[in-house]
Amino acid sequence: MGSANRLTNGQGRHPLFSFGVISDVQYADIPDGCSFIGVPRYYRHSMLVLQRAVKSWNNLKNLNFAINFGDIVDGRCPKDQSVNAVNKVVGEFEKFNGPLYHIIGNHCLYNLPRDKLLPLLKIPNPRGGGHGYYDFSPTPEYRFVVLDGYDISAIGWPHDHPNTLEALEFLRRKNPNSNKNSPEGLEGLDRRFLMFNGAVGKEQMEWLDGVLQDATNLKQKVIVCCHLPLDPSASGQEALLWNYDQVMDVIHRYKCVKVCLAGHDHEGGHSIDSHGIHHRVLEAALECPPGTFAYGYIDVYDNMLSLVGTDRMKSTNISFHP
Q1: Helix (H, G, I), strand (E, B), or coil: what is residue 151?
Q2: How many other β-carbons are positioned within 10 Å of the β-carbon of residue 267?
Q3: Tens digit of pLDDT for each residue in 67-107?
Q4: In degrees, to the nearest 5, what angle opens at C-alpha 178 toward C-alphas 175 and 184?
Q5: Is the full-model pTM beyond 0.70?
Q6: Where are the transmembrane segments (predicted)?
């Protein structure tokens, strides 16, 4: 992970900037367990993965920022420990010597409502109303667009909030099961219509369209970040954003978006869609057995991203037309 490796990845050129990445820490001070399909989960060890990641990022000395792709604390965390657990994990993130950007995940919202969560994660909320989508430009050439995949969601908003009611009505129509987290009987891509997923709402969709138009005018390349994956070929069907197709219809109107990064599907994945956009889903910190790790950093160039992964996070070179 030294400078020689960084130069080789960029074909002998220094990156324009670099940033750390980690996803699905899902810490909880509880014994190890399993997912609903029996995949082992290491709730306490995930904190060690995060600590190792932050130490590694700081040792590199030239990362410009870091992004956490969501699910900071696990839904099985006892509710009376939620605030302390979130603060504990945030405290570890804040040992990073640079700016941090957090993305809302479903497990975050199992623990805390939006009005408590957003301030703890210091998520920008310029429009008010508890929304978790925003954008930033680390250099003039690039813009990051962070989507709130739980904008329309049955979790996180007050029970009588219009976004909650819209999500519950959507699930009623799309998923006939009494347990709305069960995909039983759902076929193909319909298996994404589960309560632990969500959707991008109309207002956010209009915002996204405006940001991409602005980035196009400024000749910026865009990296879209979301907890929920946006392409079926990079993810299991059960992990997709409910309206990923509508979001991608907006994105595909423009040529500025080069890469979409996500978490949520713990196995990770990589695909290139019909418009040449790369989709990279990051492997989860939570599912690292003791002694293993999953985090990395990304070097960004004019015509490529180079993800340098550690251990279970796979290194990936992503090339595109500048």
Answers
A1: coil
A2: 13
A3: 999 999 999 999 999 999 999 999 999 999 999 999 999 99
A4: 55
A5: yes
A6: none
